[in-house]
Write a structure and sequence with these properties.
Blueprint: E1 3-7, H1 15-26, E2 31-36, H2 49-61, H3 67-83, H4 90-102, H5 107-126, H6 147-159, E3 164-165, E4 170-172, E5 178-180, H7 186-196, E6 201-206, E7 227-229, H8 230-238, H9 249-255, E8 259-263, E9 272-275, E10 288-301, H10 311-321, E11 326-328, E12 335-341, H11 342-345, H12 349-360, E13 364-377, H13 387-397, E14 404-407, E15 413-419, H14 423-436
Parallel strand pairs: 1-2, 1-6, 2-3, 6-8, 7-9
Antiparallel strand pairs: 4-5, 8-9, 10-12, 10-13, 11-12, 13-15, 14-15
Helix pairs in contact: 2-3, 2-5, 6-7, 7-9, 10-12, 13-14
The chain binds aspartic acid.
Residues 9, 37-38, 48, 50, 114, 168-169, 183-187 line the site of aspartic acid.
């Protein structure tokens, strides 16, 4: 069995954290392929090395002196190297980086050095081989990740290796220049490596013990999700729950490889398993709750709307013409409501309303603002009767007015619209009814 292990920035922020990571890897010889992030924050006031690199390169681009900033970045790595008593030539590495900065190697190159240098140190610390991600992770001319080429080259290269450290976050373009994924992209590299070696599990080590059922800023000490499916995760992530980069799901999902989110600071915790499908029931009927504030509802009314063919299309055309995507579309007999993001919509609202009048000739168009959407997600809901009844009685008890209900056709989620001001209370009420009282 082989495991691919990715460690996030806070797991690698200092020599002390590196030691924890070293223990985790050494205690299981199946953990053979390691994907490190750049050093993250050591405490809440600290700055991530990636952010330091971006700021440093801003100076390069502005033609200003960047010596001090680059030395501060070097100091982060020296602390790790010296704390671990490693023999690594950081002077040489930073000399190359300085030269490349002067030659304007690009922002992506700059940012990628965070992972590259951490990979170098990790390889020296573990005694594992080092592979520069630029040699095995590829993007095409348009900067789009080239999955096919990458898989071919990477799987061939790793096949004969006992172990390796492959830095996360970056790869190369056809002309050899470095290109990064979007922020948090080391998760994607981990997933790509997991696919390339057909691993049995992709372990993603971070500073929390997995996904929580609800946002800990709203619910005190929420319970952890033990097992979640990729689909459930997509629904929750879309509604704002985040632990893992969204794009990290695709490479492993295709291969049916599960992801195990683990906590570097608490390795005995089994974390959360993200799987394709499972017969394991979740502990509660719901798997998770997530939500977002800041939506507007555009309510459109027209007598006999139900019998007018093409009415919905004309209304949506008004949004399309103004390049506004809609979130939800609940409708009644003579009414139709379009939920949109308030910040996207606010500058264009009058243009959209005028277009609705021009295209669909409604009786009234009315806008309601400051709404929130809450997604209650759970594979268990499909087989359980009365889930929505429970949600709505919990909300009624909490004196919360429900503005919209939308049950996705997959039956694994129910979306509820409430006023922004009721958002937190609504989440608490739903959490209580399913998790605290386990109804
Ligand atoms: N270091 C990069 C970032 O801060 C990538 C990562 O950590 O995954 O976004």
């Amino acid at each position: 069995m082989v495991k691919v292990v990715k460690f996030g920035g806070s797991s690698l922020a200092s020599a002390k954290q590196f030691e924890k990571v070293g223990r985790i890897i050494r205690e299981d010889d199946e953990r053979r392929f390691v994907v490190p992030s750049a050093p993250g924050k050591r405490d809440s006031k600290d700055t991530k090395v990636t952010d330091m690199l971006y700021a440093c390169y801003d100076l390069v681009e502005a033609g200003q002196d960047f010596t001090k900033q680059l030395s501060a970045i070097k100091a982060r790595y020296e602390e790790i190297r010296d704390g671990l008593k490693l023999d690594a030539d950081l002077d040489g590495e930073f000399e190359i980086i300085r030269k490349n900065f002067e030659e304007k190697a690009g922002r992506d190159y700059a940012a990628s050095r965070g992972e590259y240098l951490n990979g170098r140190l990790m390889s020296a610390y573990l005694g594992f081989a080092f592979i520069d991600a630029a040699e095995v992770i590829f993007f095409d001319e348009d900067g789009v990740f080239d999955a096919e080429k990458t898989h071919k080259v990477l799987s061939k290269r790793l096949k004969t290796m006992d172990n390796a450290v492959i830095p996360g976050f970056y790869g190369s373009l056809p002309d050899g220049r470095v290109k990064t994924f979007s922020r948090g992209g080391s998760d994607i590299t981990g997933s790509i490596v997991a696919k390339a070696v057909h691993t049995d599990v992709y372990e993603n080590w971070t500073d929390v013990s997995g996904f929580l059922i609800a946002d800990p800023r709203i619910i005190q000490n929420p319970q952890k999700i033990e097992v979640i499916t990729y689909r459930e995760l997509r629904e929750l992530a879309y509604m704002g729950a985040s632990v893992l980069h969204e794009d990290a799901i695709f490479p492993v999902r295709q291969e049916g490889i599960p992801i195990n989110i683990r906590n570097t600071n608490d390795p005995s915790d089994s974390g959360t398993w993200i799987v394709g499908s499972t017969c394991q029931k979740s502990k509660y009927i719901i798997t998770g709750i997530a939500g977002k504030k800041g939506f507007c509802a555009v309510n459109i009314e027209k007598d006999m709307m139900n019998s007018e063919i093409g009415f919905g299309r004309k209304v949506l055309q008004a949004f399309e013409e103004n390049e506004i995507s809609f979130e939800h579309l609940p409708s009644g007999i003579d009414t139709m409501t379009v939920f949109v993001h308030q910040d996207e919509f606010v500058h264009k609202e009058q243009k959209v309303v005028a277009a609705i009048h021009r295209l669909a000739n409604p009786d009234t168009v009315d806008i309601e603002s400051d709404l929130a959407l809450i997604a209650v997600v759970g594979r268990g809901m499909r087989a359980t009767r009365g889930t929505s009844g429970r949600i709505f009685s919990a909300l009624a008890h909490a004196h919360i007015n429900v503005k919209m209900i939308d049950q996705g056709s997959s039956e694994i989620n129910i979306i509820i619209g409430v006023a922004n001001a009721d958002f937190e209370n609504a989440i608490r009420a739903i959490y209580d009814i399913f998790v605290e009282t386990r109804l």
